C-alpha cells in the first residue's frame, strides 16, 4: 500500500483533529496528505530536507534534529509557534521524522505542552493513536524539562 499511495495510513496518526505525526512521506503521497487536510509539514530529519527532495508542502518548517537527539528549547518553541499558526489558519499539520517513533513524537509532545498539557498527558495522548512510539530516555527527560521550562515562562 505504501508504494502505491506514497504514504501508509499506519504511518500517519492523527493525534488531534488537524495534528498528524508519522514517518517520511514520498512525493506521490502528497495528494493523499492534502486530501486528509494536511497543508503544512514540520520535518525533524537532520538527514533529509523535504524541500530538496520534492516532498515539502507550501507551508514547511525544517527542524533538523539528529536521530535519537533533541533540538533546543528555542527551536521547539519556534516550531510550536509555526504549528499553532498553521492550525489557526485551518491547515492540518504533519510532523515527521524518518519512522515517526522518536523525533516527531517529541515535537508533538512539545507542541501539546504549549497548549496546556503536562508532559505525561502529551505522551499519553500520542500513545493513544500511536502506541508504538519509542522516544529515548533522554528524549523523555528533555520533554519533562521542556514542560518545566514552559510552565515557568
| Chain oligomer state | single chain
Q: Count the strands? A: 5
Provide the CATH architecture.
Answer: Alpha-Beta Complex
Helix content: 40-55%
In CATH terms, what is the fold-level topology?
Answer: Protein-Tyrosine Phosphatase, Chain A
Number of domains: 1
Mean pLDDT over the residues = 92
Query: What's the SSE pattern?
Result: HEEHEEHEHHH
Which features does this protein show?
153 residues, alpha/beta, Protein-Tyrosine Phosphatase, Chain A, 19% strand, globular
Topology:
Elements: H1 2-5, E1 12-16, E2 19-22, H2 30-35, E3 38-45, E4 59-65, H3 73-88, E5 92-96, H4 103-114, H5 119-129, H6 137-151
Parallel strand pairs: 2-5, 3-4, 3-5
Antiparallel strand pairs: 1-2
Helix pairs in contact: 3-4, 4-5, 4-6
Walk me through what this model shows.
By secondary structure, the chain is an alpha/beta fold. The protein has a single domain (12-151), classed as Protein tyrosine phosphatase superfamily (Protein-Tyrosine Phosphatase, Chain A). Helix content is 42%, strand content 19%. It contains six helices and five strands; from the N terminus they run αββαββαβααα. It has helices at residues 2-5, 30-35, 73-88, 103-114, 119-129, 137-151, and strands at residues 12-16, 19-22, 38-45, 59-65, 92-96. Strands 1-2-5-3-4 form a five-stranded mixed β-sheet. Strand 1 and strand 2 form a beta hairpin. The longest helix has 16 residues, at 73-88. The protein is globular, with a radius of gyration of 14 Å. The relative contact order is 0.17.
Amino acid at each position: 500500500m505504501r508504494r502505491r499511495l506514497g504514504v501508509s495510513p499506519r504511518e500517519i496518526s492523527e493525534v488531534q483533529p488537524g495534528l498528524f505525526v508519522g514517518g517520511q512521506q514520498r512525493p506521490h503521497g502528497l495528494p493523499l496528505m492534502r486530501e486528509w487536510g494536511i497543508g503544512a509539514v514540520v520535518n525533524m530529519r537532520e538527514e533529509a530536507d523535504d524541500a530538496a527532495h520534492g516532498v515539502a508542502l507550501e507551508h514547511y518548517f525544517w527542524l533538523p534534529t539528529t536521530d535519537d537527539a533533541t533540538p533546543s528549547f528555542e527551536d521547539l518553541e519556534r516550531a510550536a509557534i509555526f504549528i499553532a499558526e498553521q492550525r489557526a489558519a485551518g491547515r492540518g499539520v504533519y510532523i515527521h521524522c524518518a519512522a515517526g517513533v522518536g523525533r516527531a513524537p517529541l515535537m508533538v509532545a512539545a507542541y501539546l505542552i504549549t497548549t496546556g498539557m503536562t508532559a505525561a498527558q502529551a505522551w499519553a495522548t500520542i500513545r493513544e493513536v500511536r502506541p508504538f512510539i519509542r522516544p529515548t530516555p533522554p528524549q523523555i527527560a528533555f520533554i519533562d524539562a521542556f514542560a518545566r521550562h514552559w510552565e515557568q515562562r
